[in-house]
C-alpha cells in the first residue's frame, strides 16, 4: 500500500468499510510505501474537485498500477459508472495501469470497443484511448465487481492529463447553450425557470413549437 499526502474523508456506503468512499479527491498525491523524501516527478497527483469530476479514492497497487474507486450517483448508492479526473506531476515515459474497480454495470460498451477519453494541457481536444489498451472484466480480487483497466503512457511532464468515461457535458455548458438560444429571440423557443434544485441549480422549463404549430415541453 502507499502513503497518502492528502486523503479524502471516508464515509460508509453499500460496499462496506473496506471500500468506503467519501468526497472527491483533491490534489491527492500518493507516495510509495516507506518513502520519506520530498515528492518528485512520477509521484502522481489526482484531482476530481471540479464540475462533473468523480474520483473518490486512490490505492497504489504497485509502482506501475493504481486502483481507482468512483463515487456513486447522488441518492443512488448502487449506481457507479461515471468517472472524470485529472493526473499531474507525471514523469516522461511513465507507464501506468489504472483500474476502475467498482463499476456497478455487468455489461458495458467497453467490452465492444468503447474506450475512455483523454486530453492534456498541450492537447486540449478529447481523444479516445486505443481500445487494445482497455479491458473490462469481473475481478475476484474486488468482491467480483466489474473492473475496467486501461494502460497509458505519459509523454509530457509539464502536462496535466484528464481522463473521463466519455465526453463530459457539464451543467454550466448546458446553461451557456440555453443562454445563447434565448438571446436569439426565436418565436418558437421559450425558456422559463421552473424552480431550483436541492443544490440551488436552476431548473428550466423549455417550450418549443414544431413546424406544424404543436407544442413540445422539455
Automatic annotation (TrEMBL):
BP GO annotations: proteolysis
UniProt-listed PROSITE patterns: PEPTIDASE_M14
Keyword Manganese: no
Cofactors that this protein relies on: Zn(2+)
Gene name of the encoded protein: AGBL4
Species in which this protein is naturally found: Rhinolophus ferrumequinum (Greater horseshoe bat)
Name recorded for this polypeptide: AGBL carboxypeptidase 4
GO CC annotations, alphabetized: cytosol
Swiss-Prot/TrEMBL catalytic activity: (L-glutamyl)(n+1)-gamma-L-glutamyl-L-glutamyl-[protein] + H2O = (L-glutamyl)(n)-gamma-L-glutamyl-L-glutamyl-[protein] + L-glutamate
Location of this chain's protein in the cell: Cytoplasm, Cytosol
Amino acid at each position: 500500500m502507499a502513503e497518502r499526502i492528502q486523503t479524502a474523508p471516508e464515509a460508509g456506503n453499500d460496499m462496506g468499510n473496506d471500500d468506503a468512499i467519501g468526497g472527491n479527491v483533491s490534489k491527492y498525491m500518493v507516495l510509495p510505501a516507506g518513502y520519506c523524501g520530498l515528492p518528485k516527478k512520477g509521484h502522481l497527483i489526482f484531482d476530481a474537485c471540479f464540475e462533473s469530476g468523480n474520483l473518490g479514492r486512490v490505492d497504489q497497487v504497485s509502482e506501475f498500477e493504481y486502483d481507482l474507486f468512483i463515487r456513486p450517483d447522488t441518492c443512488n448508492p448502487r449506481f457507479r459508472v461515471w468517472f472524470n479526473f485529472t493526473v499531474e506531476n507525471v514523469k516522461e515515459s511513465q507507464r501506468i495501469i489504472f483500474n476502475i474497480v467498482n463499476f456497478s454495470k455487468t455489461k458495458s460498451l467497453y467490452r465492444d470497443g468503447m474506450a475512455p477519453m483523454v486530453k492534456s494541457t498541450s492537447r486540449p481536444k478529447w481523444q479516445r484511448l486505443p481500445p487494445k489498451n482497455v479491458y473490462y472484466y469481473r475481478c475476484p480480487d474486488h468482491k467480483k465487481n466489474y473492473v475496467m483497466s486501461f494502460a497509458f503512457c505519459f509523454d509530457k511532464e509539464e502536462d496535466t492529463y484528464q481522463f473521463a468515461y466519455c465526453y463530459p457535458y457539464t451543467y454550466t455548458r448546458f446553461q451557456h447553450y440555453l443562454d445563447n438560444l434565448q438571446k436569439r429571440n426565436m418565436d418558437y423557443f421559450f425558456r422559463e425557470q421552473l424552480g431550483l434544485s436541492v443544490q440551488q441549480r436552476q431548473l428550466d422549463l423549455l417550450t418549443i413549437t414544431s413546424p406544424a404549430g404543436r407544442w413540445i415541453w422539455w
